[in-house]
Amino acid sequence: MLKAGVIGAGHLGKIHLRLLQQSSKYDLIGFYDGNEEVASQIEKEFGYKRFHTSEELIKAVDMVDVVTPTVSHYEVAKKVLSAGKHLFIEKPVTSTFLEAEELISLAKTHKVKGQVGHVERFNPAFIAVKDKIEFPMFIETHRLAEFNPRGTDVPVVLDLMIHDIDVILSVVDSKVKSINASGVSVISDTPDIANARIEFENGCVANLTASRISLKNMRKSRFFQKDAYISVDFLEKKCEVVKMKDAPEEPDDFAMILQNAEGVKKQIYFDNPKVEEHNAILDELETFAYAIENNTSPVVTLEQGAEALRVANKVIESFGK
């Protein structure tokens, strides 16, 4: 079992602590949080061993799970990697792409692994259909959330939209060609609503919308490709695949047939892949343990986390242009 420690014991940090304690892949050694009151309360309430400095925690473990606010990711992660310890770090990986590049370099220098917490890659609904997403040419995503003061220290692009950016980059095998976006600040100092159009060199276009001041929560993505339409509801953990194939000469009475102006007939097929229930956060943590133990590449590498951040920052830079 890998000795694990958590730095940052806020809302998400407490979830990570509980899951690491449950996991058969890790031995949870303890945690560190710079807020004396929070750290004392968690130690008393849950019984996790508390470290009084991050350095002490890092020294005592094999892997550090960084769940601090984004602004401190770089400094904390640098300590972890420089000490030769494996790093799991929440998204976005850092505040800037240059900081992310330095972490990548440190991980290579010290021969340790890093994984970024882009948890939607492990969403059961996405897992169920990701192998069916082949050469998508148009993608539309909506990620809407009710207002929550937690997370408003960064633009909604880095808070919410970056989830969809990472998913899109994982299924589109092409470089980004251009980005056009707009963002509006409503209640925060940074944009609360954003829309982005990302064009890829292979012709694929992605239209992304994110809001953190909506009246209801929504996390849906739709992927359109030749002869197929795939929808993923990340919130409800549901998915659907609609395929079109050449219609048989004698379709049955209940077949759905479309005919174009040239007389070509297509039959529509509906497929609802089975969605296996599992905890996405636990899965991402345990796949990282597998990568460490078997010396394989993590599911979401530091490089991939850095690229998602680079694209997200390009979206922010294009506001108002």
TrEMBL record:
Residue intervals of the Gfo/Idh/MocA-like oxidoreductase N-terminal domain = 3-118
Tell me which stretches of the chain form a coiled coil: none
Q: Which InterPro entries match?
A: Gfo/Idh/MocA-like_OxRdtase_N, Gfo/Idh/MocA_Oxidoreductases, GFO_IDH_MocA-like_dom, NAD(P)-bd_dom_sf
Q: Where is the GFO/IDH/MocA-like oxidoreductase domain?
A: 156-216
- Gene Ontology MF term list: nucleotide binding
Superkingdom of this protein's organism? Bacteria
Full protein name: Gfo/Idh/MocA family oxidoreductase
